[in-house]
Design brief:
The structure is a homodimer. With about 230 residues, chain A is an alpha/beta fold. Chain A has eight helices and ten strands. The structure holds a DNA duplex (22 and 22 nucleotides). Chains A, B: Homodimer.
DNA sequence: AGTTGTGAATCGATTCACAGCC
DNA sequence: GGCTGTGAATCGATTCACAACT
């Protein structure tokens, strides 16, 4: 048994003006969105390898899903494979990146530059994945001003300015739990629309803002569930 | 819009000897398992607050789900609420922890003590969550032997011995990508049954072993999807 | 009166299997 | 001959709404 993690909270219902003859894009189902990053990675690998064309069978194997599911998922993007041939790797990669909204590197602000924030900054600078680490923010006067991952850490009191300056819509929250909700509120008020929180607490956000919790303890608990039953 | 992350790969089908009069436990659905950690946290909060009894309504609000869903989820655990009254917080907390398999603190080994591994070690030591950080392992001679989170970092070459010594069935993998699959294989051969991987690559594991990927780039990509459409 | 546990209904996601196209 | 895109079938998960119980 195995399997990657990832789930998406809610669908984005699209105004139903289909009747008016406007060809509305059908909303991509949450479960599909959760798999798109896997497809993107697989396609990037193939692309690097110099592969020009791939079948749904091969791509699905790389991404760890069934080929029928892959084809169904791609059909939501209005994809253009060629029957009898397969998909053009480069074109499809572009299509998936576009659907996710990571064509042009999006600005991400990381708040809380402890060991975890530092590690995440390094990782995102190196791996990329379609993002630009635009700024790092912390409260600690001993950290503010120091260089981390090639950026000068900025002062928490300027958080809103930093977010606006960089036009960041995404943020990574790596502060202690106590500060999380306050920082979250300020991020949202400054225009952030998506927050990846490494905090165990549930964060309250207004509609239109998405929070994803990266909760290590919860992940381990789920793993613990699966290791039950076969005690060795 | 908001929502925590978390999904569970596959169900554990139970041998169907119901006909023989044996009261088999019905398998808990994956979606339910994914929500149990949230319930556990909410129940722990209530318990700390000194609350003895709670309704499904209140508990569901704390966990961020609907009350009907909460009741349905708990019904898989054969839970014993009292009609007209609610659930006994302490008892229910025990029941959920038990279902997850985290009643007695499980041993966890962390491999790769870079900044990320160090941060995770600190976090798991502090937050607990039903686990005992049993050992830290790294290859770097400059790190091996140093004290991190109150433990001496051990040498990677002793990985298998360490896992067996501690009887660890869970591991956290925080090594560079290149080493991930090799370390994974060794963990599995030493008896580890669940791996939380902070590596973007898909890991191949035999049946009976569960991998959950904590992929920061993928999470951000999913967030990016939700921020599309409303360019603010 | 208040709340649970659960059938029945609904909704969404996955899989099958094949017509349609290259 | 091979492979995609998708209707139809299946499977699972969520929600409704109420009977059963304290």
């Amino acid at each position: 048994m195995s399997g990657p993690a990832g789930e998406v909270p809610a669908a984005q219902p699209v105004a139903g003006l289909e009747a008016a003859g406007v060809p509305t894009v059908r909303p991509v189902p949450p479960a599909t969105v959760g798999r798109l990053p896997g497809y993107l990675r697989a396609l990037t690998e193939l692309s690097v390898l110099g592969v020009r064309t791939t079948s749904s069978e091969r791509l699905a194997a790389l991404a760890g899903v069934g080929s029928a599911q892959l084809r169904r998922d791609l059909s939501w993007l209005g994809s253009h494979g060629v029957r009898g041939v397969g998909y053009d790797v480069r074109r499809l990669r572009g299509r998936v990146a576009d659907a996710l909204g990571v064509e042009s590197d999006l600005a991400v602000v990381i708040v809380g530059i402890g060991r975890l924030g530092h590690a995440l900054a390094d990782y995102l600078r190196a791996e990329g994945g379609g993002f630009r680490v635009a700024a790092l923010v912390d409260t600690d006067p001993g950290v503010v001003g120091s260089a981390v991952a090639g950026l000068a850490v900025e002062d928490d009191k300027d958080l809103e300015d930093v977010v606006r300056r960089e036009g960041a819509v995404l943020a990574v929250l790596a502060t202690p739990v106590q500060a999380a909700q306050r920082v979250c509120d300020r991020l949202v008020s400054a225009g952030v629309r998506g927050i990846l929180a490494f905090t165990p607490a549930r964060l309250a956000v207004p509609d239109g803002v998405t929070v994803r919790a990266a909760d290590v303890a919860a992940e381990l608990q789920i793993l613990a569930f699966h290791t039950r039953g076969t005690p060795a």
